[in-house]
Amino acid sequence: xxxxxxxxxxxxxxxxxxxxxxxxxxxxxxxxxxxxxxxxxxxxxxxxxxxxxxxxxxxxxxxxxxxxxxxxxxxxxxxxxxxxxxxxxxxxxxxxxxxxxxxxxxxxxxxxxxxxxxxxxxxxxxxxxxxxxxxxxxxxxxxxxxxxxxxxxxxxxxxxxxxxxxxxxxxxxxxxxxxxxxxxxxxxxxxxxxxxxxxxxxxxxxxxxxxxxxxxxxxxxxxxxxxxxxxxxxxxxxxxxxxxxxxxxxxxxxxxxx
Amino acid sequence: xxxxxxxxxxxxxxxxxxxxxxxxxxxxxxxxxxxxxxxxxxxxxxxxxxxxxxxxxxxxxxxxxxxxxxxxxxxxxxxxxxxxxxxxxxxxxxxxxxxxxxxxxxxxxxxxxxxxxxxxxxxxxxxxxxxxxxxxxxxxxxxxxxxxxxxxxxxxxxxxxxxxxxxxxxxxxxxxxxxxxxxxxxxxxxxxxxxxxxxxxxxxxxxxxxxxxxxxxxxxxxxxxxxxxxxxxxxxxxxxxxxxxxxxxxxxxxxxxx
Amino acid sequence: xxxxxxxxxxxxxxxxxxxxxxxxxxxxxxxxxxxxxxxxxxxxxxxxxxxxxxxxxxxxxxxxxxxxxxxxxxxxxxxxxxxxxxxxxxxxxxxxxxxxxxxxxxxxxxxxxxxxxxxxxxxxxxxxxxxxxxxxxxxxxxxxxxxxxxxxxxxxxxxxxxxxxxxxxxxxxxxxxxxxxxxxxxxxxxxxxxxxxxxxxxxxxxxxxxxxxxxxxxxxxxxxxxxxxxxxxxxxxxxxxxxxxxxxxxxxxxxxxxxxxxxxxxxxxxxxxxxxxxxxxxxxxxxxxxxxxxxxxxxxxxxxxxxxxxxxxxxxxxxxxxx
Amino acid sequence: xxxxxxxxxxxxxxxxxxxxxxxxxxxxxxxxxxxxxxxxxxxxxxxxxxxxxxxxxxxxxxxxxxxxxxxxxxxxxxxxxxxxxxxxxxxxxxxxxxxxxxxxxxxxxxxxxxxxxxxxxxxxxxxxxxxxxxxxxxxxxxxxxxxxxxxxxxxxxxxxxxxxxxxxxxxxxxxxxxxxxxxxxxxxxxxxxxxxxxxxxxxxxxxxxxxxxxxxxxxxxxxxxxxxxxxxxxxxxxxxxxxxxxxxxxxxxxxxxxxxxxxxxxxxxxxxxxxxxxxxxxxxxxxxxxxxxxxxxxxxxxxxxxxxxxxxxxxxxxxxxxx
Amino acid sequence: xxxxxxxxxxxxxxxxxxxxxxxxxxxxxxxxxxxxxxxxxxxxxxxxxxxxxxxxxxxxxxxxxxxxxxxxxxxxxxxxxxxxxxxxxxxxxxxxxxxxxxxxxxxxxxxxxxxxxxxxxxxxxxxxxxxxxxxxxxxxxxxxxxxxxxxxxxxxxxxxxxxxxxxxxxxxxxxxxxxxxxxxxxxxxxxxxxxxxxxxxxxxxxxxxxxxxxxxxxxxxxxxxxxxxxxxxxxxxxxxxxxxxxxxxxxxxxxxxxxxxxxxxxxxxxxxxxxxxxxxxxxxxxx
Lengths: 258, 258, 323, 323, 287
Ligand SMILES: Nc1ncnc2c1ncn2[C@@H]1O[C@H](COP(=O)(O)OP(=O)(O)OP(=O)(O)O)[C@@H](O)[C@H]1O
Ligand SMILES: Nc1ncnc2c1ncn2[C@@H]1O[C@H](COP(=O)(O)OP(=O)(O)OP(=O)(O)O)[C@@H](O)[C@H]1O
Ligand SMILES: [Mg+2]
Ligand SMILES: [Mg+2]
What we know:
- The complex is a heteropentamer, with 2 copies of chain A, 2 copies of chain C and 1 copy of chain E.
- Chain A is an alpha/beta fold.
- The model of chain A has no long low-confidence stretch (mean pLDDT 92).
- Helices cover 36% and strands 26% of the residues of chain A.
- Chain A has helices at residues 42-49, 81-88, 106-116, 122-135, 151-163, 181-196, 208-214, 232-235, 242-253, and strands at residues 4-13, 16-26, 31-35, 57-62, 65-66, 69-72, 75-78, 91-94, 169-173, 200-204, 217-222, 225-230.
- Chain C has helices at residues 2-13, 28-50, 56-63, 66-98, 103-118, 121-134, 136-142, 144-160, 166-198, 201-209, 214-244, 257-268, 271-300.
- By secondary structure, chain C is mainly α.
- In chain C, 76% of the residues lie in helices and 0% in strands.
- In chain E, strand 3 and strand 4 form a beta hairpin.
- Chain E has helices at residues 34-38, 42-47, 73-85, 99-104, 119-124, 164-179, 193-201, 212-221, 247-262, 265-272; strands at residues 49-54, 57-58, 62-65, 69-71, 88-93, 110-116, 126-140, 156-160, 186-190, 207-211, 226-242.
- Chain E is built from 10 helices and 11 strands.
- Chain E is elongated.
- Chains in contact: A-B, A-C, A-D, B-C, B-D, C-D, C-E, D-E.
- The interface between B and C is large, with 42 and 36 residues.
- Bound molecules: adenosine-5'-triphosphate (2 copies) and magnesium ion (2 copies).
- One magnesium ion is lined by residues 42-43, 173-174 of chain B.
């Protein structure tokens, strides 16, 4: 059974139905890239997976656990905040705008959750954090505050922070779209390596080269439904659906002269 | 004589020399694209042109006026704030983060400077503003506040706002780099049109297709000096300097799979 | 959690799951808190209704005295309004001085703030009253604007309420308003400074790039946005000022709510009902102020998405302008 | 401007222009302002030195009285500290309640704020004092924590200053601290709410996504960042509280700076020097508080680029995290 | 111009003697005296009025009526004095502890606010004696707690803060209680005299001590809820506060008082306020 198993997920804001029945399975070790125009519901879907938004219908299982609810005797019981927090620990999330804690150094950002949530020993947490920082190439910047780091560096720290909780699943929401074109590469490199090491990942991205190279499956969403999905060479290389074709054409047009 | 004539411009922050003697001439009606890695001083140079930063050495003339100073009897006199403000009116500037006034609607943003600075009649200013909004394709959104507009729409309003002062020169500082890839096109289209109409423009950008297509001259800066400049087909198509080559290679690597 | 794992495959087989209609989480602790609060409120109401110390009929009679009403309108409300005008104006000026490049101006602003925040208002008002007698001319020269205001007030006072003679209004109330205004300016300076610092630098630069003068930039772009941050603490300050008008007796000015009520208390030896009457007046004024604050916040919050946006599409986080 | 156009070509021909060594702009208006300020300061100093009303030797004698010093330390400083602890704690709690989804909690918080912002501190303290006499047991049960604090204080009082008998300390000061603390909590609630709202929502979400409980999110992520916005107005509040301790006389508590000074003033009939002495004490305390505020602001401003960044490269505006 | 709100309260109040507008001389046989007028300080002469600072919260000597008019025994008496000088009085309400400073600084020409004459005050300003007040105790009607002034140990006693009763009288009694091994007097000090009286009326305290005119008036005002306890003791003169520089004027004021005493105005004013027990005849500067 897949690590992520989402069935018929629906979600509305007020009367605006943003997700209209999304199905998605992600096997352990797989990388899924989510594409789609702005407003298609990609971010909302990621947030539903780790319960930053509660869903209106359908079910999401991660690692065989029903997210956000307990099902007993055919009835759903909303989990307590504490239990939801526990479920979230298994899932790392990286945001478009990094969302590092600005009042903590890079190192403090990384050890915060292990210390506060998993109650690890300070020394052990620091050692592991330094290893993670080293892995994302920032061991020398451990004492820098986020404001003293470039965007690419901040995003790499954010990835390390998520990894520090040793999650089973990583969610990335446009992790490079707030970065200078030059700094995109360093973040994608870290993500590529993570994929190679077998981390299960769902990545919302506009970086086609990354999707082509790293993704096992590419999912194209539009207006709250999955329009097309499959291996990257099909969905990106030879899209079937006219909406996918139009979207990719629009993206391409700006870069063809390079 | 060129519309912009900058000679040996130097600028330091504390002891950090950011511009190390920049020369640049922009003829009337020309479009100059400024390329260069992060931190090379592109933004700082644009800001020096309209005196948002005062320069430490060299001179900048725009439309035959020495920016920021009055030279009499071989001596330089710093201009009063009022006089500097008057000089700035001839120069429109578009920022990376749009910087629309969030407490004013799109229309109010545009008529603010004509009303307050040029003391135009309200009716005439509104009419001209509506024409400008129409030109950037946003006539129907005139009453929207910036927060209700997408990034691309905000940037188009920002361009209309700058144009409302009927500047002789337009400065663009990475106008599309804070935008979703999908929204980049709509802003570049407006800029392309502006160039066709003969506006003199200096554009800092990472959008190579735009530079190739629209620029008369491409200037590559690095570490506060102009490394290479010339027509786009030379600088982008066939860069001579190793630093230019490296930079372009880095940019390209992320998009080659598209 | 093992039950989940078992229930899932069956569930998945049994067709696509539909709407979620879950039993919400119970918050027993929260209900206990609400219960405790309810009991406390009940006790308070019981106390209010049954305790004779309140003497409600006396409270309302006292509140309905003509000098009390006029003291509330003129001494309390008007002085609050005028002092806050002086205070907000002075505070903004001090904040601009404090943020200026000129070290002398910035230093003077700092010293002013330091001194006037330290001096108790009661002592300040007493000194103002004394100064007023010693140099009446000097003072009137120093703050022509306030005199203008008071002149206007003097006129309106003559037209509407006849119970304070002009001489007393001009010496006492002017001194009171100046004293309270100067003190308030020191507090407002900090608030205004925080507000101005909260406005993104890009906003001022965009305005400068359009050729606006520094005054225009401040008035049209920076201050309107700073108001979002300035208004809530200013609400606090105004409400505090409302009650600090009772210090006017140090000037001395007695045409003010609290003094008038107390003088009734002196006659009838009913201290507590007098306190209740004062509280009711201040509650009413505070309520009006809080409503005003709500509308001010809404006004200066326009375009900042504090309410649901009216446009068809909400802003993207990354795309929100310099806000 | 035509002269520029003429000078330019010659200049350009005459070799590359070098460093700019320009004559700066003169600001005559600014110098006039500085002059006026200097004259005013001069007048003030002249007044301070020459006017006999100040009676400096008496001022310092009065300041050096043992009851005055002890009143300053215990009545003024300690009550300020304790009241602000109650006020800040209560204010944060009220702000959290106000922002909660539960309409009852949020409503209770609103009513509390509305009521306690409206009631003058003098009247509140007067009522607290009365309550204290009516139900001394009841009060001690209601706030065990404060009693603990006061017990500790009572001990230290016995050890260090012997001039207030324990009975008075326990009834009066507790009532005073509770009254001032409740009132302060109402003001702090607004301040804390504004602070919490100023923290980017993405911060709380990032913390939640890491599996932190809502309490942890608040304590470790939201509040530390909110402090940047909370500290400056809290400085204002603390300074105001410092002086509002003089209202303790309504409880009644008389072991407090202003009352003690006034009683000396009453004995020697020197009101003005007494006012000066009080002001000097408050100036000193305010100065210390302002220094403390500076360091607090610096502490909570860490990572926000309010000081020059220590790293080799400053943040890019577009890249600054959720700040 | 009537505005809203009533001008009087229904309950109580009927017994408060009314007086004319504060700035007008009270009616009576007193009339101006040219010799006295010559002794007026130049400032008063020029203005034609005496500016008087008073704390109008001390019933019955000086208090506020109708929200702006200062009335009371001190007021009537000093108005009569001013009439002898042929000038009017402008009564300016102030807080008690700012009045002497105000007189010294020229803010007020005279301070009239039940100032007890003592050595410290005489050092600062000229004091002209015009009345003798002492300390008096009061309890609830029938003295239910059985309080006696000399045996108040363990009882709750109301007193206004900062008064001579609180600062001088009670400490001596406390010491006696302590020496006798009895429980101390429970002092209930109040910021304002009316609060202290209210505490006694409401039963929060068992007894009250204050200046005799105040206690006598409170007994009268509360319509039989309170009663006098023992007799007036520690009598001391009240004095008008006049700047040290105006000694000549102070002397003239004593003369005016003597004239008022001679023509009966003095007595009738004291009687009007139920205070003729405090009448004196030896008016003097700094007695
Ligand atoms: N909290 C919210 N309240 C109301 N509407 C929301 C909310 N969050 C998202 N939406 C709406 O839901 C829709 C989908 O938004 P979402 O952010 O999921 O899109 P997206 O695919 O991530 O787009 P983008 O590429 O722009 O990030 C949009 O129309 C958006 O306006
Ligand atoms: N106000 C300032 N104070 C101190 N240093 C500054 C300031 N503004 C810019 N710098 C520094 O000047 C250098 C050049 O900055 P600038 O913003 O001009 O680069 P850029 O070429 O626009 O780069 P980017 O592509 O990142 O926008 C950088 O090292 C930057 O840190
Ligand atoms: Mg998104
Ligand atoms: Mg730049």
